[in-house]
Amino acid sequence: MVLFFLIFFLFLSLPNSSLSSFSFNSSKPLCHSHQSFALLPFINSFSVVEYSDPNCDVGEYSYYYYPLKNSWKMGIDCCGWNRVTCDTMIGHVIAVDLSCSQLQGPIHPNTTMFSLRHLQRLNLAYNYFNHSTISSKFGGFANLTHLNLSGYSVSSSSFTGNVPSEISHLSKLVSLDLSGNYDMRIKTPSLKRLIQNLTHLTELVLYEIDMSFVSTNCLTNLSSSLTSLRLTFCQLKGKFPDNIFHLPNLQILRVGYNYNLTGSLPNYNWSTPLKCLFLSETGFLINLPNLINNLKSLKQLTVSGCNFIGSSYPTFLSNLTQITYLGLSYGNIGGQCPWSLLNNTRLTYLDLSYNNFIGQLPKVMTNLTQIFSSNNSSNSQLVNKISSNVEYLILSGNLLNGTIPSCVYTIPSLLYLYLDHNQFTGHIGEFQHNSLVYLSVSFNNFSGNVESKIFSKLKSLQSLDMSNNPHLSLHSASATNILSKIHSLQLSSSNITEIPQFLRTAEYIGYLDLSNTHIKGNIPSWVMEVGKDSLYYFSVSRNNLTGHIPSLICNLNLDLRSNNLNGTIPTTFAKGYLSRNNLSERIPSLICNITSLNILDLSHNHLSNMVPLSLGNFSDSLTVLDLRSNKFNGTIPATFTKGNYLRSLNLNDNQLVGSLPRSLINCRRLEVLDLGNNKISGTFPHWLETIANPKTKFTFPNLRIIDLSHNDFHGLLPTKYFNHFKAMMSMNANNGKLKYMGESYYHDSVMVTMKGFYIELVKIPNLFTTIDFSNNSFKGEIPKSIGTLKSLKGLNFSHNNLIDHMPPSLGNLRNLEWLDISSNMLTGEIPRQLADITSLEVLNLSENCLVGMIPQGNQFNTFENVSYLGNLGLCGFPLTRTCDNVDGQQPSPSLSFHDDNFKFQEDDLKFKNGFNWKVVLLGYGCGFMFGLGLGYLVFSSEKGTRLVNIVYGERHNKV
Ligand SMILES: *[C@@H]1O[C@H](CO)[C@@H](O)[C@H](O)[C@H]1NC(C)=O
Ligand SMILES: *[C@@H]1O[C@H](CO)[C@@H](O)[C@H](O)[C@H]1NC(C)=O
Ligand SMILES: *[C@@H]1O[C@H](CO)[C@@H](O)[C@H](O)[C@H]1NC(C)=O
Ligand SMILES: *[C@@H]1O[C@H](CO)[C@@H](O)[C@H](O)[C@H]1NC(C)=O
Fold this sequence. Notes:
CATH superfamily of the domain at 648-844: Ribonuclease Inhibitor
Strand content: 15-25%
Keywords: Cell membrane, Glycoprotein, Leucine-rich repeat, Membrane, Receptor, Repeat, Signal, Transmembrane, Transmembrane helix
Bound molecules: 2-acetamido-2-deoxy-beta-D-glucopyranose
Family: Belongs to the RLP family.
Radius of gyration: 34 Å
Distance between the termini: 89 Å
Protein name: Leucine-rich repeat-containing N-terminal plant-type domain-containing protein
Largest sheet: 31 strands, mixed
CATH class of the domain at 648-844: Alpha Beta
Pfam family, one: LRR_8
Shape: globular
Transmembrane segments: 919-939
């Protein structure tokens, strides 16, 4: 029997030696039966899931466990159970390790486990405890020295709620790990007590726990026995206590990614044993040479993105003789790369990205496997000597030129190679890397015709990005089994002329971007088979494709924009971008049966007939419906269902008639309502008046862009409702960061009459809010309430029948950039308050009956006569008619800011870093157009979207 146990135990034994203290000699006391009765129901309260947490495959957890249920059995001494350890004298269960046991289910406060009062070590890490709260009963394990309740941070956490203050009763704790439970919070009182009472603590691991409520002061009293403090991603803010750097035993300090944590590093008396210091992405003030001078024996250091004091030259690196892991990105370091300084180190990981290094890349550094040096200004060629152990070679965004040196093609262990956003030229050679997973050569100047067989050795390649090499083409005639593992292929803006043949055998392809190349003709039928079970994104937009659209694969994000395709609209996609084609067939009514339809963009086609009645029925998923610039007639479907998800409804430039359907009020999530250039009639919106209490039931709280221009609306402006456009009122405080409507799901675009020009914004910054009611027959006065819409950028009420004075509250619109209320019957003076709008760039008050003195100062010094034409009673600058001496100057004919015969043009500007502008301008028919002033141009790149503010007054030649 004992022999059986021995074999059994060895077979399942753990690498974790701490748990192997269990002794097998025959005098070993047996498990007390109440302990078996405590353990069994506990483990039986969980189910066992098939999967195991990713954390369980790495590091100290690089072992897999069988479900323990099989080894935990009544009738067998519980001290012999797998991963249960007993006290050898008395037989008390003193350690239980259930980490990585694939357990699923809640831990109830009444669970029998809490009766194991003698426990000294308890490890429940990496299971699936369904967001249980940590019971205060954990505080009852009086002799506990090690507690690990680490969560799995991949999908959701194991534990949630507050860390109970009773944890502070565990005064013998040496190691506490609650990390990875990102739903969990710890607050100042609990932490304070915990730190006061746990005086033996050597390891405190709380990363990813929400500590935003914690006052960092209470960390001041941490136990002097502490060796490891790990608080990454804890939302800590405030000043980090200085004394922690002096703790006499501290070896590991990780507090990175607490963006609002500040502090400074001491100049002397550092904790001498410190080996690992991770401060990246915090507000620590850092003087790099000083820091490294103090900590010469550091093995791991990352300070990327901290606040560096001054700039420095990399000579200080020679002090780091022990370093293995070094992250210095955004470090404000300049000068020659310090390769020779690091030559004899054990460095394996080096991140120097976003500095100002010049010069060459490393020659032979035998240990270095991960090199990150993107966005420096190394404007030299790559040297033809790179360590053969390199796995990561990340050199994006430098000024590297010339051809790729031959050694790069042969680095045997290479996994990731990023050469994008450089100035490489010449041909691309044959890659010899068996293990390469990711290859990017995008945004360079490579040229020539690449034979696809140069990829034939890349058996492991999953992602290939050759996009934005305008002279690079790819020839793949009959090649198959090339890149057969490929998941993502990007060839956009290159010179390819066909859909690569090797895709026929690419059974894992998920992302395929062939946009803006030179592919023409019909879409071959085999394309429908490509990535049959895997493809989720397919773009051939901006090519010369003709013929019918094949009916493609389900659940696809399908982008066919800007081709010459015709035929039946497929009914199989979730996101369909079919704008700017030759589509003229009726929208198939089947389209309304696609339950997952999320985006439907059919704009700029020749679609006619009625908008299918049931289009409003997509209650479950449709967020964007864009039918602009077609020939739809009839009325707007009256079938918008309650609770629908529509965020953008664009029916601009059709021939729609009738009035707005009442069911539009069900579109509570609308951000864009664009109905301009139709023949829609009625008072606006006639159903508003019928809703009892607009305060509580306001229809469109998120609306940012409303365009009703060029219709037949009449009646008074909806006075009360301006008080409720919440989204237009709030000045978006996104921490200075602009977000875009539809950020993750749609490149929203909309035409706006911005500063007198029709402009199509490819994405709509959240800050971009406009009202355009021009060219209708609205009457009455301009409501005072308009002044509440503080984030408004553009307001156009021109060409209506508005009367009375301009409300002075217009002056509250401090973000307004263009204001057009021309061609109405406004009287009285121009409110002086308008001069307070310092952002105003375009003003058109022409063709009204305004009188008196034009406000002076600020922007009003920049407006010209045309802003005021046709107002015979106005005087003062810029008119020659002075206010005391009206000289009878004749107004010239009015200037219309609208021209229906606008011309379409597409503008691709290249930004100096190689980013691609994507702005479509619809220009006014004059020789050049104004720079967009403070307007926003949006461009997107691999590195995310950016917004560029064009300098005020800059003029940009029309292409
Ligand atoms: C513990 O409590 C849960 C929920 O309150 C209950 O379902 C369960 O039966 C209880 N278990 C025991 C052993 O009392
Ligand atoms: C805790 O440890 C002490 C000292 O080793 C011992 O006397 C006591 O019995 C233990 N308590 C429990 C509940 O195991
Ligand atoms: C400190 O620990 C002791 C027992 O170890 C406990 O009685 C006491 O309540 C704890 N203090 C706090 C503030 O939690
Ligand atoms: C940092 O602080 C600012 C201002 O207090 C806050 O808005 C922001 O959310 C904080 N950022 C993080 C990541 O905690």
